[in-house]
Amino acid sequence: MRIFDEEFDMQSYIKKRLLEIDNLESRRVFTSVVEGLFLELHGEIAAEYKGLEQRVFEEVPMPVEGPAIVTNIIDRRLYDVTDDFLLPMRPEDMRPHQVDAEALLTSLNEKSPFFLYTVFLQADHLEACQFDRPERKFRGVIKTRHSEYTAQFHVRRNLAYRRQIEDLYRIFHLNYLPWRSVCAPYLYKLFDVYIDGIENWNAQEIIEEAVIDFEEYAPAIRYHQVPLWNLETVAIRTSTYPEPCVDKINYEHRIFRHKFQEDARYLVTNSDVSVANIRWTKGDLLITCPLEDPVTWEMYQCNPQAKREYSNRLMGNAKQASFADTLMGVFRQPIKTKLELSRLIQACGYERDLTFAGVELVANFPDKETYIVDDFIRDELRTGTWETAMRLDFQPADYDFYLNRDIMSFLVGVVQRHFPEYECCGRLV
C-alpha cells in the first residue's frame, strides 16, 4: 500500500503548511527540521518503496505484447516534416493531389465515376453513417482557368487506410505477437469524393478546383487531411553471415542491437520471405528463415511517444499496466465479474472520455451505436452464431465530443476479444 499517492508533492505540501505558521522563529525552526530531516527521510522511503515495487514486478514475467500504435490526423499544410514521432500513413498524401485530365475524360466517356479527392467528416459516427450513401448526389462547380462547369458528385467510404490496419494484423502474426486492436477513429470518417458527370465539359480544360455543396454536412467537412501513425518504414540488413540451423533447412539471421533506435519497437514486414521464427535476445533480433545469404529486412519502426502538440487528439491502444492485470495475463485468468470487466476497460486509458456505467446480456440490440473495429478478422473459430448480445453502457464526459462512439467502439472491441460467445455492442447513456 502506498504511503502517499503518486500525485502527492511533499515539497508543495510543506510550503503550504509553512505559510500557516505566524511566528517567524517557529517557522525558521520548522523549516530547518523539515528540510534537514523529514524531506530527506521522505525521499529515502519513496526510493526504497519504488525499488521494492520494481523487484515485485520483475518477479512476475510480463506477457508478450505487440507495440502500442498511435494514430492521428492533421491538415497537410500544418504537418511538421521534422516530426520523428508521427508520420503519414501514406507518404504520397503530402503531395497536392493533381487531377489526371486524360483519365477524367476517359471516365466521363465511359460514364463511370472518377475519383477526385478525399475529405474528412468531423462528425459523430451515426452522422457519418448517414453521410455514407453513394446513391445521394451532391451538386457542385468545376473551376478551370477560363470557365466554370456544373457537376454532380457522390461520396464513398475510404477504405485504403483501414486496409493498412488489416495488413498490420498480418504483420503482428508474422512477428509471433498477439493482436491488439488499434484505436483509429479518424480513419472511419474519411470519404472519397467522385465526379459522376460534368455538364458541357471541354476536354481541353484542366481542373483547378472543385467546389461541392455538401448541404447539411458542409460545416463538418475538412479538406487536406492526412492520417498519421507512429510507424516508420525502415530497412536494416542482416549484421553477420547467417548461421545454419540444426534442421538443415533454415538459417538464423542476426541484427545487432546498435542498429535499432533506443526505446523503439520493431516489426518485420517482409511478405516475400517464409519466416519460421522471430525472437529478441539481449537487444539483438534473430530471424529464422530458409535464406542462406544476408537479407535487407523491411520493418516498421514503432516510435515511442514524444512530447509534441497536435491540433487533434492522439488516439492509441496502449494499456495502463497494473500488477493485477499482469498476473491475469500470466495465468490466463478469464474475466468473470463486472469489476474485472471495468478494470479491463479502464486499462485502455479512455476513462476521461467515457465512464463504464454497466453491462447487460440482452436477446438482441437492434439500434447499434458502435462498429466492429476488427471486422477484417475472419479466421476466428466460433461455436455457432451469436444468440445473445452483451450491451455495454458508457457515460461520456462531453456529450458533444464527436469521437465518443468511435472510442466506445474500440473499447467494445477490446471486450469482444474476451467474450467471443456474445455479440458485444455499446450504448451512450
Keywords:
four-stranded antiparallel beta sheet; 8 helices; 26% helix; alpha+beta; 429 residues
Q: How would you state the average pLDDT, rounded?
A: 87
Q: Give the neighbour order of strands across the main sheet.
A: 7-4-5-6-3-8
Order of helices and strands: HHEEHEHEEHEEEEEEEEEEEEHHEEHE
| Residue fraction in strands | 25-35%
Helix content: 25-40%
Name the structural class.
Answer: alpha+beta
Count of individual helical segments: 8
Q: Please give the radius of gyration in angstroms.
A: 28 Å
Based on DSSP secondary structure assignment, what is the total number of beta strands?
20
Low-confidence spans: pLDDT under 50, at least 5 residues?
A: none
Distance between the termini: 35 Å
How would a textbook summarize the main sheet?
6 strands, antiparallel
Q: How would the global form be characterised? A: globular
